C-alpha cells in the first residue's frame, strides 16, 4: 500500500473516531448512560487492541467516506449518516452470509446498527421520536432474522449433496488469526473447561425485561447481559497448536475438572504451589536483598518489575509505560505508605435512606504495597527502555532475566503470563479459606466476568487479610518484610444496595402493620400477595422479574423451585433453588388465600378460570397474583407493582433482595460454589448441577437450612401467625 493511501485511511479513521466520540458525549449529556458506556467501551477496544475481532470495524467504516454528508444541515446530516451506517451494516451482513459466517456477520451488523441507533437517540429528545426509533430498530431486527433464515434455507437447498458426493471432514478447531494481548486486565479465565474453540465477541447489550417499569442499574445490566467476551488465549508457543481439551474427549475434561476440585495442578497455564513459592522467593531476593550484588542493574530492575506484577496482578506491558506508576490513580504513593486503590464501579445510591442501614459504605478496595519497591519503580529511569525493543515486540532486559530464572529455578514453563496470573491462581486454588470470588476482588476482574462482586459485602480489612496471607504463604525465606501492611481501612466494600438484617426485619414489620390497617377484601388480598412475593424473594434470592414463580416450577413437597429468571433468552439458564420450611408455610397459606378469593369471585369467569388453573393444574402460570385496579381481573405480579407497593417504605428497586440474600449467604459461610448456584452467578460450564460437576442436588438442597436461619433471624415465624390471622379475617369478609 502506498504512503498516500495509508495516510488517507488514517485521516478517515480519525474522522470516524471524532464523530463517534461526539456521539458518546451527546449520549452522556442527554442522560443515556448505558448507550454512552457501550459506545465508549466498543471504541476503546477498537483503539487499544490489534485483534481482528476489534479492528474489523475500522476496515468497514474506512470504506465509507464522510465528505459526502452535508453537515451544515443537522437534521439532514443525521438522517444521511444513520441511513448510510445501517446500509453498511446490512451490506456487511450480506457479505458474511455469502462467506458462510452468519453468526459473526449478525453480531457485527448489530453493533453497527447500535451505533446508528445511539446517534439518533443522542439528537432526538422527544418521547415520540425515541419510541419510533425503538420500534424501527425492533422491526429491523425481526426483518434481519427473517432474511438470515431465508438465505440459509436457500443455501441449504442449493447445496444438498448427492449420494455420490464426497464427504469432507472439516477441522474441529481453528486457531485465531493473531494473538490478542489484554492490556488492562491480567488473564483469569484460563481454565480449560472455560476455553471455547472459536473466538467470539458480543457487544454488551443488556436485555432487561421491557415491562419491569423501572430503571436498570449497572449491576443488573451486567448480570443479565449476554456474555461480553469469550476467547481463546494461548500465551505459550509450545501449546499454540494444541486443541482445547474439550475438543479431544469429554472424559478427559471431566477428569481435569475433578482434579482441579481436589486442587491438583493439571493446568499448563499455571505453576504448582511449590513453583510459585520458589519463584516468589527468588524475585524477592533479587529485588529487595542488597546481597544480590552480582546481578546487573538491568536484571535487578527487571526483578523488581516482575515482583510488582506478581503481587498486584497487573500486566507488565502496563507497568513499564513511562510515568504510569507515578501518575496512575491506582497507586497512592506517600512517603511512608503506598497502596493499590481501585473502585469496583458499583452504582451509588441516588436517594439517601435515612431510616435504613446498609452493609457497605464504600466500593473502594485498598491493598498495601512495599514502599521501597514502588518508590523505586515510580522513577522512570529505573524502568526498562521499551523504545529500543519495540521493534522486536518484547523487552530484552526482562526476557534475558526470565531466561536466567528458567535455568536456575528449573521452571521451563515460566513466562510473563504465568507471573501476571500468579496471584489470582494462588487465591483461587492454593490458599485455604480463599476462593475465586476473593480473587475477583483482589485482582480487579472485569465486570462481565464477575457480576458477583457487585452483590457482595466484605470488610476491606478482610480482603487485605486474604491478600497478605497469600503473600506470607509464598514468603518462606522472609525476604519480603510485611511491616508496611499494618495500616488498613475498616470500610465495608461491596454492594450499595445490601441492607442489614435488622433493616430488612424492620421493613417487614412495617409492611405487616400497613397490611393490617385495611379492612376491604380486595385491597387486603393485593397487599398480602405483594407481601408473600417479598418474603419469597428475601428467602430465595431469585431475580425479582415479572411473572415470578410458575405453578409447574414449584415443588412444595420436596422444597424446590426451578427458575429460568434471565430475561435475555440467549443466556437463559435453568437452576434449582431450595425452599426453606418457613417459605413453604407462607406459600401454603397463600394457596388457602387464593381458595377464598375463588369462592368470592364465582360471578367473575376470568378470575375463576385463572384461579382454577393455579389451584388444580400443573400450569405455566404464576402462583402469586394481583387483582387489577378495578378488581375485575387477576394478573401476575410485576416488578413495577412491587416498587409501587414498597415506595412508602423504601426508595429502592426490589432488586435489593438479591443483594441482601447474597451478602447473608456469604456471612453465614456457605461454600462459594453453592452461593453462585443459588444466586445464579455461575460461570460458563461451571454450573453446580451441570454435566461436568461433582456437586449433588442434596448439597444444593441443604442450603435451605441457611435460608431457614435467615428466616428465623428475620422473625418470619411470627409472620406465619400474622398470615393465619389475615386468612381468618378474609374468611369473615
Automatic annotation (TrEMBL):
Alphabetic keyword roster: DNA recombination, Membrane, Transmembrane, Transmembrane helix
Entry's transmembrane regions: 16-36
GO molecular function per UniProt: DNA binding
Signal peptide, first to last residue: none
Source domain of life: Bacteria
A single BP term in Gene Ontology: DNA integration
Keyword Transmembrane appears in the UniProt entry: yes
Protein name (database record): Uncharacterized protein
